[in-house]
Amino acid sequence: MNNSYLSRVVKQAKQKTILGYHDKRVNKFGVMGTKQLPILTSEDYSTFLVTRDHNFVVETKQIEILLNNYMVTARFRKLKKQLATILILPGILISIGFVLKLLGFFYDYPTLHSILSSRLVNWAFWISVLGVIISWHDYFRLKSHPIKLPETPPIPEKQAKAIKTAGFKFARYIQLKAFYFLSEESQRLLAKYYRRGIFDTLEFFAEILTAKDTQRILERANLEIDVHEFETKSINSTTIPDYPTAGLRCIILYALEDAILTESHEIRPEHFFSAFFKVFPTLKNLLNENNSSVDLIREIIRFFNREEEKEKASNILNPDTIYYRTGGVGKFWIYGYTFILNKFSKDITEKVASIHDRFGIGHEREIEEITSILGRMSNKNVLLIGEPGVGKSSIIKGLAQSILAGQVPPHLKNKRIIQLDVTGLLARGVGEGNLEQLIQKAMQELSSAGNTILYIDEIQEIIPAKSDQSGTSISSIMLPYILESNFPIIGTINYADYKKFFYSNESLRQSFDSVEVSPVFPTDALEILETIIDDLEQNYDMYITFPALTAAVELSQRYISERKLPDSAVRTLEATCSWAQSKGIRLLDDEHVAKYISIQTEIPVDSINAEEATKLMNLEQNIKKRVIGQDEAVNKTVESLKRARTDIRDPNKPIGVFLFLGPTGVGKTHLAKVIAQEYFGREDGKEDIIKIDMSEYQDTDSINKFLGSYERDSMGQSSVTLLDKVKSRPYSVVLFDEIEKAHARVLDLFLQLFDEGRLTSNRGETINFTNCIIICTSNIGSKLLLDALNDEKALWEEAKNRAIIELRQAIRPELLNRFDDVIVFSPHTVENLVKITEILLTELADRISEKGISITWGKPIPVLIANKARVPGMGARPLKRYIQEKVEGRLATEIIQGSLQKGSEIEIKSEWLN
Amino acid sequence: MKQKTAQIEKLSRSIPAFRNRKLISLASTPALLLFTVKDLLYWWYLQMPYYYLISLNRLLLVADDKLSLSALLKTFFLPWKRDYSALGHIMGIIIRIIYLPIGTMIFLSILTVYLLFITAWLALPPITIFFIATTPFLKIFKFEQ
């Protein structure tokens, strides 16, 4: 559906490599563009790749030697292997014979006994041992010492900028030869398609494409590229031509770049595969046609690499992986008992030790900050504050992992994190009848244990809110221990609850150091989703493609505002899997995720199909059919809607912010409703339009009313504010009626709202308005506009300008400047009123047709109604009232009298309008 | 500069091909045979012993953790389960005195077995060559009585 998902998700990834070239003729060095990579076949040019610390180079001569060597050694190795196998076989027989001889089986066979004792057999045995040595070297050489690319941290922005402006400073890099990092399989394939100095690129690509590893990448990417369809897709020797050896320099370097970017240890065939999409436009087009991208392929390779690493990590004796120290048999001898605490707590450290997934992804800064606070002499309690779903619990697990790996300062080594189960504690306390004593015992255990960090998730659960405080608060019993800081405590809380529970309790607030937890970046969220793929696939018995993951990250970030990344993405993916399972779907892709989000949020986020494209194309005409005489307003709003639906707009701002200016009855609110109906898809439009009368926010105190309050009324209910409405329906038209009547401080809030698309409520929640169309209306300048109504066009333009001047005097320029457009609605002419009457009559006819009655009218009727109902300066409203009174009233009477029944037809007569 | 040299050294340890900093052509048979022998010897006597020592280091780390040897030694005078009574102190020392020698013996056994394995590894090629070479060719068919 939309390959831009991943591009957006990965765009924050830091730069790790820079490709450069050297023009030997003029001795000029430069940076290569990244959009399409060239294959330089002339020896006048050379290419290289720099990372933060290394400069990878490759020369034509080296490639020639390497590939020729490979061809020679491959044949030799095959021979050597066969010879070694032949040598080993008699050794195996002799060994069996020796064992049997030792067991006394050959006493009755003196010849065999003698043969086994002969020098020939001894000699054959040692020859076999030599065979074993050769075979073992052949088999284990690459396993014991695999090719390993050096670590490549991101290039600091300053360094990257300096390269682009001032050129490369080669003295700072360690120079490495790129071909050393080619895997055995890559060497084999390169050598296979390299004949007499010419490399058959097309055949090489075709073989890589059919390889098992590439096929699993394509499967994950939900891509189908068939070798048999190459010709139809214009993949031939013209679009992917043969290259001389010099051209291979670039191919190897580009593959090396992909190996580095995908966190691989060596250049494998799949890196050539992904690199080719950057080189050959035909292949790039092929990806575009399939709505995929190179970024997606790279991400999948990275995922498989991580999976391999995870598998390796399960072997505790593998020296290349981190060993998590568990403490061993003596762990419980050294530290104190926590018998009581164990009854209502769980050991996070122990749990984490058995899992090889990485926790705390994207929260490295927070873990570092916690580590530093926990190392203090006093006041070593930490409070993690963050929106729901930002990954607070994952940070704790990440900290536990750091402790187990020994990657913490000495004072934190051997510590264990115990999570308090507050519900379990309360249940036990109530059961035993003495909660206070139970807590005190548990706290004493913690104090004397010496190696525990107490973790309390949702710490507000132990602090009763002041308004409904009853009984003994757990926090008041724990407070002395918290203040003494004998053992560290880590609590988690969200902003709203922090404000609610901690602001009123100074001593409690002082005893914790706050660490703010921000939502993770989409790239990190994607990595987190990758860690749960296996579990989801097993649980829901389906195959999850990568586009589904990227869609879950991107769409949940944009449309699920109540939770933050990564949790929103995780929940979306899980829920989509569950939904897909119920629909019998076995292969989950981005379309399914979009479909599920569309169903859940009632937002049309799935791809623009032909029907919708037509709808969008016709949107302007459709709205104009219903909104008469306001073409300028319609054009401007429709433009912004098209931008929004095609994802061209700035995602950090509302879809559109408009100020509609004009006298009453000209259709300002009506246009807002029509937009809601036509664009957001609701039939009645009521649900998708949030109307706020700004005359209700005239005094200073109204700012609190606007931002909501956590205070509850006597019935325990809190009032529903604008923010609550937007939170529950983030995809709406928000109509602020008559904004000039609002207090200046309320209007100040609009600055942030229009600019950043968000507002923070008094409860500390941030409400997202980026999926809203914000329409403000104002009657400023109405009189001027009305006065100009019957005058000539030139005067109307002048009146419009004067109205705008009046607006500038009434509304501060910084606010006015933040509107996408100020649209002046022109007062209705009689012709417009006639058209509006026709629309109103058609709507009436539609309503009444539901009762089986059809209603018709002649051409003069709308003209008659428009002329009779028209009240200058009142717009279209009097028409509605007139139709209600004269037409609807008459129809109602006739229905009651029984003269109008199902199947009847009636014509509106001019007499009715007298 | 020192850092760079260290990095190169680290790299050369992890990449077997690094000793061939100058890529030589193996087109002739003597060159190929010489390369094969050199490659085998380099791997057997330099790379693998180093690999085994790293593995031994990891094995000992795991053994130490599982047996809690260093943790118990560091906390030798701490009372049993942090019970700061006289009994706790006595229990702590007694249990450590009993347990630590057993743990150390297991630890040393692992170390010894592994070192023996490395020694055998190093000795295997010369022993093999020795036995092949010292078996007199003409006496091969002479059966022992």
Topology:
The complex is a heterodimer of chains A (914) and B (145).
Chain A: H1 4-10, E1 18-23, E2 28-31, E3 45-50, E4 54-57, H2 60-102, H3 110-116, H4 119-144, H5 157-166, E5 174-177, H6 184-192, E6 194-195, E7 198-199, H7 201-210, H8 212-220, E8 243-244, H9 245-261, H10 269-279, H11 281-289, H12 294-313, H13 331-334, E9 345-347, H14 348-353, H15 364-374, E10 382-385, H16 392-405, E11 416-420, H17 422-432, H18 435-449, E12 452-456, H19 474-484, E13 489-493, H20 495-502, H21 506-510, E14 513-516, H22 522-540, E15 543-544, H23 546-559, H24 567-582, E16 587-588, H25 590-601, H26 610-617, H27 619-626, H28 631-645, E17 656-661, H29 668-680, E18 689-693, H30 702-707, H31 722-728, E19 733-737, H32 744-756, E20 758-760, E21 766-768, E22 773-778, H33 782-787, H34 793-810, H35 813-816, E23 821-824, H36 830-849, E24 854-857, H37 860-869, H38 877-897, E25 905-908
Parallel strand pairs in A: 4-5, 10-13, 10-14, 11-12, 12-13, 15-16, 17-22, 17-23, 18-19, 19-22, 24-25
Antiparallel strand pairs in A: 1-2, 1-3, 3-4, 6-7, 7-8, 9-11, 20-21
Helix pairs in contact in A: 1-23, 2-4, 2-6, 2-9, 9-10, 10-11, 10-12, 15-16, 17-18, 18-19, 22-23, 22-24, 23-24, 23-25, 24-25, 27-28, 27-29, 36-37, 36-38, 37-38
Chain B: H1 2-14, H2 29-67, H3 69-74, H4 86-134
